[in-house]
Amino acid sequence: MNTPQTDNFLHNTDIAKDTLVLILAGGRGSRLHEMTDERAKPAVYFGGNWRIIDFTLSNCLNSNLLRIGVITQYEAHSLLRHLQHAWSFLPRERGQFVDMLPARQSVNEEMWYRGTADAVWQNMNIMKNHYKPKYVLILAGDHIYKMDYMNMVRSHIQSGARCTVGCIEVKKEDAKEFGIMSVNDKWQVQAFVEKPQDPPTMREKPDTSMASMGIYVFDSNYLYDVLEDEIQKQTKNLDFGKHIMPRSMKEGVLYAHSFARSCTGHNTEGTPYWRDVGTLDSYWNAHMDLVTEYPQLNLFDKDWAIHGLPTQSMPTKFFCKDNCLHGLDNSLISGGCLITNATITESVLFDRITVADHSHIHQSVILPEVSIGKNCQLQNCIIERKCVIPDNFVVGVDKEHDKARGFRLSSSGKVTLVTPTMLTKLAKQNEIGKPSI
Fold it and tell me: Which residues are annotated as a binding site?
Protein backbone atom coordinates (compact mmCIF):
# COMPACT_ATOMS: atom_id res chain seq x y z
CA MET A 1 0.00 0.00 0.00
CA ASN A 2 1.13 3.56 -0.64
CA THR A 3 2.34 5.58 2.30
CA PRO A 4 -0.25 8.25 3.25
CA GLN A 5 0.87 11.71 2.20
CA THR A 6 0.60 14.98 4.10
CA ASP A 7 -1.13 18.16 3.02
CA ASN A 8 2.25 19.71 2.15
CA PHE A 9 2.41 17.51 -0.93
CA LEU A 10 -1.23 17.91 -1.98
CA HIS A 11 -1.41 21.16 -3.91
CA ASN A 12 -4.50 21.23 -6.14
CA THR A 13 -2.46 22.07 -9.23
CA ASP A 14 -0.29 18.98 -8.71
CA ILE A 15 -3.30 16.74 -8.15
CA ALA A 16 -4.97 18.14 -11.27
CA LYS A 17 -1.85 17.57 -13.36
CA ASP A 18 -1.50 13.98 -12.15
CA THR A 19 -5.18 12.97 -12.51
CA LEU A 20 -6.99 11.65 -15.56
CA VAL A 21 -10.79 11.65 -15.44
CA LEU A 22 -12.64 8.94 -17.36
CA ILE A 23 -16.40 9.36 -17.76
CA LEU A 24 -18.29 6.19 -18.66
CA ALA A 25 -20.97 7.43 -21.04
CA GLY A 26 -21.67 4.44 -23.26
CA GLY A 27 -24.77 3.05 -21.62
CA ARG A 28 -28.07 2.72 -23.45
CA GLY A 29 -30.33 3.50 -20.50
CA SER A 30 -32.97 1.00 -21.61
CA ARG A 31 -35.28 1.82 -18.67
CA LEU A 32 -35.89 5.21 -20.30
CA HIS A 33 -37.40 3.25 -23.20
CA GLU A 34 -38.04 5.36 -26.33
CA MET A 35 -36.14 8.34 -24.90
CA THR A 36 -32.90 6.45 -25.58
CA ASP A 37 -33.83 4.83 -28.88
CA GLU A 38 -31.59 7.26 -30.75
CA ARG A 39 -29.41 8.78 -28.02
CA ALA A 40 -27.25 7.52 -25.16
CA LYS A 41 -28.59 8.10 -21.66
CA PRO A 42 -25.96 10.78 -20.81
CA ALA A 43 -27.17 12.77 -23.85
CA VAL A 44 -30.79 12.90 -22.67
CA TYR A 45 -32.04 16.44 -22.06
CA PHE A 46 -32.37 17.60 -18.47
CA GLY A 47 -33.39 20.64 -16.47
CA GLY A 48 -34.58 22.87 -19.29
CA ASN A 49 -31.13 23.81 -20.54
CA TRP A 50 -28.72 20.88 -20.29
CA ARG A 51 -27.93 17.24 -21.05
CA ILE A 52 -27.46 14.77 -18.18
CA ILE A 53 -23.71 14.51 -18.78
CA ASP A 54 -23.32 18.27 -18.28
CA PHE A 55 -23.65 17.75 -14.52
CA THR A 56 -20.69 15.36 -14.34
CA LEU A 57 -18.61 17.53 -16.68
CA SER A 58 -19.48 20.66 -14.71
CA ASN A 59 -18.36 18.94 -11.52
CA CYS A 60 -15.02 18.25 -13.21
CA LEU A 61 -14.73 21.86 -14.36
CA ASN A 62 -15.62 23.27 -10.93
CA SER A 63 -13.24 20.78 -9.27
CA ASN A 64 -10.41 21.93 -11.56
CA LEU A 65 -9.90 18.40 -12.88
CA LEU A 66 -9.61 19.18 -16.56
CA ARG A 67 -7.90 16.19 -18.18
CA ILE A 68 -11.03 14.31 -19.23
CA GLY A 69 -11.78 11.37 -21.50
CA VAL A 70 -15.39 10.44 -22.27
CA ILE A 71 -15.88 6.77 -23.13
CA THR A 72 -18.83 6.35 -25.49
CA GLN A 73 -20.52 3.47 -27.27
CA TYR A 74 -24.29 3.18 -27.73
CA GLU A 75 -25.97 5.69 -30.13
CA ALA A 76 -23.13 8.14 -29.53
CA HIS A 77 -23.79 10.66 -32.32
CA SER A 78 -25.83 13.20 -30.36
CA LEU A 79 -23.52 12.85 -27.35
CA LEU A 80 -20.37 13.35 -29.43
CA ARG A 81 -21.93 16.34 -31.17
CA HIS A 82 -22.85 17.87 -27.83
CA LEU A 83 -19.35 17.33 -26.43
CA GLN A 84 -17.80 18.86 -29.53
CA HIS A 85 -20.05 21.93 -29.49
CA ALA A 86 -20.30 22.53 -25.74
CA TRP A 87 -17.07 21.23 -24.24
CA SER A 88 -14.28 21.97 -26.71
CA PHE A 89 -13.21 25.24 -25.07
CA LEU A 90 -10.53 23.85 -22.72
CA PRO A 91 -7.00 24.97 -23.75
CA ARG A 92 -5.03 21.89 -24.75
CA GLU A 93 -1.79 23.86 -24.62
CA ARG A 94 -2.30 23.98 -20.86
CA GLY A 95 -2.84 20.24 -20.70
CA GLN A 96 -6.62 20.56 -20.43
CA PHE A 97 -9.04 18.67 -22.68
CA VAL A 98 -12.27 16.73 -23.09
CA ASP A 99 -11.31 13.85 -25.37
CA MET A 100 -13.86 11.50 -26.92
CA LEU A 101 -13.06 7.79 -26.65
CA PRO A 102 -15.62 5.93 -28.76
CA ALA A 103 -15.73 2.15 -28.86
CA ARG A 104 -13.60 0.79 -31.66
CA GLN A 105 -12.60 -2.60 -33.02
CA SER A 106 -8.88 -3.30 -32.77
CA VAL A 107 -6.78 -6.18 -34.07
CA ASN A 108 -7.87 -9.49 -32.54
CA GLU A 109 -10.90 -7.85 -30.88
CA GLU A 110 -14.33 -8.93 -31.97
CA MET A 111 -16.55 -7.29 -29.38
CA TRP A 112 -17.53 -3.84 -28.12
CA TYR A 113 -17.13 -2.83 -24.49
CA ARG A 114 -18.33 -5.72 -22.33
CA GLY A 115 -18.51 -4.04 -18.93
CA THR A 116 -17.46 -0.87 -17.15
CA ALA A 117 -13.96 -2.13 -16.33
CA ASP A 118 -13.57 -3.67 -19.78
CA ALA A 119 -14.27 -0.25 -21.30
CA VAL A 120 -11.39 1.21 -19.31
CA TRP A 121 -9.11 -1.73 -20.14
CA GLN A 122 -9.71 -1.27 -23.87
CA ASN A 123 -8.42 2.31 -23.52
CA MET A 124 -5.45 1.37 -21.34
CA ASN A 125 -2.79 1.77 -24.03
CA ILE A 126 -3.96 5.32 -24.66
CA MET A 127 -3.84 6.01 -20.93
CA LYS A 128 -0.32 4.60 -20.56
CA ASN A 129 1.25 6.04 -23.68
CA HIS A 130 -0.57 9.33 -24.13
CA TYR A 131 -2.14 10.61 -20.89
CA LYS A 132 0.32 9.01 -18.40
CA PRO A 133 -1.66 9.79 -15.22
CA LYS A 134 -0.66 9.01 -11.66
CA TYR A 135 -4.31 8.78 -10.56
CA VAL A 136 -7.43 7.82 -12.50
CA LEU A 137 -10.84 9.14 -11.48
CA ILE A 138 -13.67 7.08 -13.01
CA LEU A 139 -17.15 8.60 -13.16
CA ALA A 140 -20.59 7.75 -14.49
CA GLY A 141 -22.04 10.22 -16.97
CA ASP A 142 -25.70 9.71 -16.14
CA HIS A 143 -26.40 11.03 -12.63
CA ILE A 144 -27.62 14.39 -11.34
CA TYR A 145 -25.61 15.82 -8.44
CA LYS A 146 -22.94 18.36 -7.47
CA MET A 147 -19.63 17.12 -6.07
CA ASP A 148 -16.10 18.41 -5.57
CA TYR A 149 -14.06 15.54 -7.01
CA MET A 150 -10.81 17.19 -5.92
CA ASN A 151 -11.73 16.44 -2.30
CA MET A 152 -12.19 12.77 -3.13
CA VAL A 153 -8.87 12.47 -4.97
CA ARG A 154 -7.14 14.25 -2.10
CA SER A 155 -8.75 11.84 0.38
CA HIS A 156 -7.57 8.91 -1.74
CA ILE A 157 -3.98 10.11 -1.66
CA GLN A 158 -4.03 10.90 2.06
CA SER A 159 -5.44 7.50 3.01
CA GLY A 160 -2.78 5.54 1.17
CA ALA A 161 -5.49 3.56 -0.63
CA ARG A 162 -4.91 1.98 -4.01
CA CYS A 163 -8.61 2.30 -4.83
CA THR A 164 -11.30 4.58 -3.35
CA VAL A 165 -15.03 4.25 -3.99
CA GLY A 166 -17.55 7.08 -3.56
CA CYS A 167 -20.52 6.08 -1.42
CA ILE A 168 -23.90 7.45 -0.44
CA GLU A 169 -26.48 6.47 2.17
CA VAL A 170 -29.66 4.94 0.73
CA LYS A 171 -32.78 3.43 2.25
CA LYS A 172 -32.55 -0.33 2.65
CA GLU A 173 -35.54 -0.90 0.37
CA ASP A 174 -33.70 0.92 -2.44
CA ALA A 175 -30.32 -0.73 -1.85
CA LYS A 176 -30.97 -3.75 -4.08
CA GLU A 177 -29.98 -1.69 -7.12
CA PHE A 178 -26.51 -0.78 -5.80
CA GLY A 179 -23.21 -2.22 -4.71
CA ILE A 180 -23.44 -2.20 -0.90
CA MET A 181 -20.48 -1.96 1.48
CA SER A 182 -19.49 -1.76 5.11
CA VAL A 183 -16.42 0.07 6.44
CA ASN A 184 -14.32 0.29 9.59
CA ASP A 185 -13.48 3.44 11.56
CA LYS A 186 -10.80 4.39 9.01
CA TRP A 187 -13.27 3.98 6.10
CA GLN A 188 -11.47 0.89 4.86
CA VAL A 189 -14.03 -1.31 3.12
CA GLN A 190 -14.62 -4.55 5.01
CA ALA A 191 -17.39 -6.03 2.85
CA PHE A 192 -18.71 -5.32 -0.65
CA VAL A 193 -21.64 -7.07 -2.35
CA GLU A 194 -23.19 -6.13 -5.69
CA LYS A 195 -27.01 -5.68 -5.78
CA PRO A 196 -27.88 -7.95 -2.82
CA GLN A 197 -31.42 -9.20 -2.30
CA ASP A 198 -31.08 -8.61 1.45
CA PRO A 199 -28.80 -5.56 1.71
CA PRO A 200 -26.65 -5.20 4.84
CA THR A 201 -27.29 -1.99 6.79
CA MET A 202 -25.24 0.48 8.78
CA ARG A 203 -24.84 -0.37 12.49
CA GLU A 204 -25.98 3.07 13.65
CA LYS A 205 -28.76 3.27 11.02
CA PRO A 206 -30.53 -0.10 10.66
CA ASP A 207 -32.84 1.16 7.91
CA THR A 208 -29.98 2.57 5.82
CA SER A 209 -27.28 1.01 3.62
CA MET A 210 -24.04 2.45 2.30
CA ALA A 211 -24.13 2.27 -1.51
CA SER A 212 -21.54 2.70 -4.22
CA MET A 213 -22.07 5.74 -6.45
CA GLY A 214 -20.09 4.20 -9.31
CA ILE A 215 -17.31 6.73 -8.68
CA TYR A 216 -13.76 5.41 -8.24
CA VAL A 217 -10.24 6.75 -7.77
CA PHE A 218 -7.34 4.44 -8.59
CA ASP A 219 -3.60 4.64 -8.45
CA SER A 220 -2.98 4.16 -12.15
CA ASN A 221 -0.37 1.40 -11.79
CA TYR A 222 -2.68 -0.60 -9.54
CA LEU A 223 -5.55 -0.14 -11.99
CA TYR A 224 -3.43 -1.35 -14.91
CA ASP A 225 -2.26 -4.41 -12.97
CA VAL A 226 -5.69 -5.59 -11.81
CA LEU A 227 -7.27 -5.06 -15.23
CA GLU A 228 -4.50 -6.97 -17.00
CA ASP A 229 -4.73 -9.78 -14.45
CA GLU A 230 -8.50 -10.08 -14.79
CA ILE A 231 -8.25 -10.08 -18.58
CA GLN A 232 -5.61 -12.82 -18.40
CA LYS A 233 -8.06 -14.81 -16.27
CA GLN A 234 -10.61 -14.27 -19.06
CA THR A 235 -13.10 -12.70 -16.68
CA LYS A 236 -16.30 -12.20 -18.66
CA ASN A 237 -18.05 -8.82 -18.84
CA LEU A 238 -15.40 -7.25 -16.63
CA ASP A 239 -17.13 -4.79 -14.30
CA PHE A 240 -15.93 -2.56 -11.48
CA GLY A 241 -18.80 -3.39 -9.13
CA LYS A 242 -18.88 -7.13 -9.78
CA HIS A 243 -15.17 -7.87 -10.09
CA ILE A 244 -12.73 -5.07 -9.24
CA MET A 245 -14.30 -3.75 -6.01
CA PRO A 246 -14.57 -7.22 -4.35
CA ARG A 247 -11.00 -7.98 -5.36
CA SER A 248 -9.63 -4.69 -4.01
CA MET A 249 -11.57 -5.21 -0.79
CA LYS A 250 -10.05 -8.69 -0.29
CA GLU A 251 -6.59 -7.24 -0.95
CA GLY A 252 -7.17 -4.65 1.79
CA VAL A 253 -6.58 -1.64 -0.48
CA LEU A 254 -10.17 -0.44 -0.96
CA TYR A 255 -11.37 2.62 0.96
CA ALA A 256 -14.67 4.50 0.86
CA HIS A 257 -15.29 8.23 0.51
CA SER A 258 -18.62 9.55 1.77
CA PHE A 259 -20.47 11.75 -0.71
CA ALA A 260 -21.40 14.02 2.23
CA ARG A 261 -17.73 15.05 2.53
CA SER A 262 -17.58 16.44 -1.00
CA CYS A 263 -21.18 17.28 -1.91
CA THR A 264 -21.73 20.87 -3.08
CA GLY A 265 -25.50 20.58 -3.67
CA HIS A 266 -27.89 19.80 -0.81
CA ASN A 267 -31.67 19.57 -0.72
CA THR A 268 -33.89 21.72 1.46
CA GLU A 269 -33.37 19.36 4.44
CA GLY A 270 -29.61 19.66 4.12
CA THR A 271 -29.18 16.13 2.74
CA PRO A 272 -26.73 15.64 -0.16
CA TYR A 273 -28.68 15.58 -3.43
CA TRP A 274 -27.95 12.70 -5.83
CA ARG A 275 -30.32 11.21 -8.38
CA ASP A 276 -30.02 8.32 -10.80
CA VAL A 277 -32.42 9.42 -13.54
CA GLY A 278 -32.40 6.09 -15.32
CA THR A 279 -36.16 5.43 -15.30
CA LEU A 280 -39.12 7.45 -16.52
CA ASP A 281 -40.30 7.86 -12.93
CA SER A 282 -36.93 9.00 -11.57
CA TYR A 283 -36.38 11.31 -14.57
CA TRP A 284 -39.78 12.93 -14.02
CA ASN A 285 -39.32 13.11 -10.24
CA ALA A 286 -35.93 14.80 -10.62
CA HIS A 287 -37.57 17.49 -12.75
CA MET A 288 -40.32 17.95 -10.17
CA ASP A 289 -37.54 18.50 -7.62
CA LEU A 290 -36.62 21.61 -9.61
CA VAL A 291 -40.05 23.26 -9.61
CA THR A 292 -41.09 23.12 -5.97
CA GLU A 293 -41.31 26.40 -4.04
CA TYR A 294 -37.89 25.63 -2.58
CA PRO A 295 -36.10 23.51 -5.24
CA GLN A 296 -34.27 20.42 -4.07
CA LEU A 297 -31.32 21.26 -6.34
CA ASN A 298 -30.19 24.83 -6.93
CA LEU A 299 -29.55 25.41 -10.64
CA PHE A 300 -28.86 29.10 -10.06
CA ASP A 301 -25.78 28.64 -7.87
CA LYS A 302 -23.04 30.77 -9.43
CA ASP A 303 -20.43 29.29 -7.10
CA TRP A 304 -20.97 25.80 -8.59
CA ALA A 305 -22.48 26.55 -11.96
CA ILE A 306 -23.78 23.89 -14.34
CA HIS A 307 -22.37 24.49 -17.82
CA GLY A 308 -23.62 23.19 -21.14
CA LEU A 309 -24.74 24.53 -24.49
CA PRO A 310 -27.56 27.04 -24.01
CA THR A 311 -29.51 27.52 -27.22
CA GLN A 312 -29.09 30.96 -28.74
CA SER A 313 -32.72 31.82 -29.32
CA MET A 314 -35.22 34.66 -29.09
CA PRO A 315 -36.63 35.63 -25.69
CA THR A 316 -39.58 33.70 -24.36
CA LYS A 317 -42.90 35.53 -24.74
CA PHE A 318 -45.94 35.12 -22.48
CA PHE A 319 -49.22 36.60 -23.70
CA CYS A 320 -52.40 36.52 -21.60
CA LYS A 321 -55.42 38.13 -23.26
CA ASP A 322 -58.28 36.79 -21.12
CA ASN A 323 -57.29 38.19 -17.71
CA CYS A 324 -55.27 35.06 -17.08
CA LEU A 325 -53.76 36.12 -13.74
CA HIS A 326 -52.25 32.78 -12.82
CA GLY A 327 -50.93 31.57 -16.14
CA LEU A 328 -47.50 30.55 -14.83
CA ASP A 329 -46.53 29.08 -11.47
CA ASN A 330 -43.43 27.25 -10.16
CA SER A 331 -42.07 26.35 -13.60
CA LEU A 332 -38.82 26.57 -15.56
CA ILE A 333 -39.20 28.03 -19.06
CA SER A 334 -36.24 28.14 -21.44
CA GLY A 335 -35.63 30.59 -24.29
CA GLY A 336 -37.48 30.96 -27.55
CA CYS A 337 -40.87 29.82 -26.25
CA LEU A 338 -44.16 31.43 -27.32
CA ILE A 339 -46.93 30.88 -24.76
CA THR A 340 -50.35 32.35 -25.49
CA ASN A 341 -53.16 32.48 -22.94
CA ALA A 342 -52.13 29.14 -21.42
CA THR A 343 -51.73 27.84 -17.88
CA ILE A 344 -48.43 26.23 -16.92
CA THR A 345 -47.83 24.92 -13.39
CA GLU A 346 -44.98 22.90 -11.83
CA SER A 347 -43.49 22.06 -15.21
CA VAL A 348 -40.19 22.28 -17.10
CA LEU A 349 -40.27 23.58 -20.68
CA PHE A 350 -37.14 23.40 -22.79
CA ASP A 351 -36.39 25.81 -25.65
CA ARG A 352 -38.43 26.72 -28.74
CA ILE A 353 -41.82 25.49 -27.52
CA THR A 354 -45.16 26.95 -28.56
CA VAL A 355 -48.28 26.63 -26.44
CA ALA A 356 -51.58 27.86 -27.91
CA ASP A 357 -54.78 29.30 -26.38
CA HIS A 358 -56.42 27.72 -23.32
CA SER A 359 -54.04 24.81 -22.98
CA HIS A 360 -53.16 23.56 -19.49
CA ILE A 361 -49.79 21.99 -18.62
CA HIS A 362 -49.28 20.58 -15.12
CA GLN A 363 -46.34 18.65 -13.68
CA SER A 364 -44.93 17.87 -17.11
CA VAL A 365 -41.55 17.87 -18.85
CA ILE A 366 -41.63 19.27 -22.39
CA LEU A 367 -38.45 18.73 -24.42
CA PRO A 368 -37.23 21.15 -27.15
CA GLU A 369 -39.11 22.17 -30.31
CA VAL A 370 -42.54 20.92 -29.23
CA SER A 371 -45.71 22.52 -30.58
CA ILE A 372 -48.83 22.30 -28.38
CA GLY A 373 -52.19 23.23 -29.91
CA LYS A 374 -55.29 24.88 -28.45
CA ASN A 375 -57.36 23.53 -25.57
CA CYS A 376 -54.87 20.78 -24.71
CA GLN A 377 -54.47 19.25 -21.28
CA LEU A 378 -51.07 17.76 -20.42
CA GLN A 379 -50.53 16.34 -16.96
CA ASN A 380 -47.87 14.11 -15.38
CA CYS A 381 -46.21 13.47 -18.71
CA ILE A 382 -42.96 13.70 -20.66
CA ILE A 383 -43.28 15.05 -24.20
CA GLU A 384 -40.34 14.12 -26.42
CA ARG A 385 -38.50 16.52 -28.69
CA LYS A 386 -40.28 17.73 -31.86
CA CYS A 387 -43.69 16.39 -30.91
CA VAL A 388 -46.64 18.23 -32.47
CA ILE A 389 -49.62 18.04 -30.12
CA PRO A 390 -52.89 18.72 -31.98
CA ASP A 391 -55.76 20.85 -30.68
CA ASN A 392 -57.99 19.43 -27.92
CA PHE A 393 -55.44 16.74 -27.05
CA VAL A 394 -55.55 15.26 -23.53
CA VAL A 395 -52.74 13.14 -22.09
CA GLY A 396 -51.80 12.06 -18.58
CA VAL A 397 -55.29 12.34 -17.10
CA ASP A 398 -56.64 8.86 -17.91
CA LYS A 399 -53.68 6.47 -17.85
CA GLU A 400 -55.61 3.52 -19.23
CA HIS A 401 -56.67 5.62 -22.18
CA ASP A 402 -53.04 6.73 -22.66
CA LYS A 403 -51.93 3.11 -22.74
CA ALA A 404 -54.68 2.14 -25.19
CA ARG A 405 -53.50 4.86 -27.56
CA GLY A 406 -49.96 3.45 -27.58
CA PHE A 407 -48.23 5.85 -25.20
CA ARG A 408 -45.63 4.58 -22.76
CA LEU A 409 -46.53 4.44 -19.06
CA SER A 410 -43.82 4.46 -16.41
CA SER A 411 -43.43 1.45 -14.12
CA SER A 412 -45.41 3.22 -11.39
CA GLY A 413 -48.15 4.12 -13.88
CA LYS A 414 -47.90 7.77 -12.87
CA VAL A 415 -46.00 9.22 -15.85
CA THR A 416 -46.89 9.08 -19.55
CA LEU A 417 -44.24 9.36 -22.28
CA VAL A 418 -45.28 10.74 -25.69
CA THR A 419 -42.97 10.64 -28.72
CA PRO A 420 -43.34 11.78 -32.36
CA THR A 421 -43.39 8.14 -33.50
CA MET A 422 -46.29 7.37 -31.17
CA LEU A 423 -48.21 10.39 -32.42
CA THR A 424 -47.62 9.44 -36.03
CA LYS A 425 -48.84 5.90 -35.40
CA LEU A 426 -51.91 7.27 -33.65
CA ALA A 427 -52.57 9.63 -36.54
CA LYS A 428 -52.60 6.70 -38.97
CA GLN A 429 -55.30 5.13 -36.84
CA ASN A 430 -57.40 8.28 -37.51
CA GLU A 431 -57.80 9.09 -33.83
CA ILE A 432 -56.17 12.49 -34.20
CA GLY A 433 -55.14 14.71 -37.05
CA LYS A 434 -51.75 13.73 -38.46
CA PRO A 435 -49.00 15.85 -36.83
CA SER A 436 -46.55 17.56 -39.17
CA ILE A 437 -43.34 16.26 -37.63
Answer: 113, 179, 194-195, 212
Of the residues 249, 271, 290, the one at which a domain ends: 290
Contact 249, 161 (CB under 8 A): no
Residues of the chain with pLDDT under 50: 1, 6, 8, 107, 434-437
The amino acid that residue 387 corresponds to is C
Query: Residue 249 burial (CB < 10 Å; 0-12/13-18/19+)?
Result: buried
Give the number of residues written for the chain: 437
pLDDT digits (tens, 9 = 90+) for 289-329: 999 989 999 999 999 999 998 777 789 999 887 665 558 89
- Cα torsion 378, 384, 387, 392 to 10°: value is -10
In a domain, 111, yes or no: yes
Report the CATH number that the domain containing residue 75 is assigned in CATH. Answer: 3.90.550.10
Please state the residue numbers annotated as binding site for alpha-D-glucose 1-phosphate: 113, 179, 194-195, 212
The verdict on 62 and 97 lying in the same domain is yes
pTM: 0.93
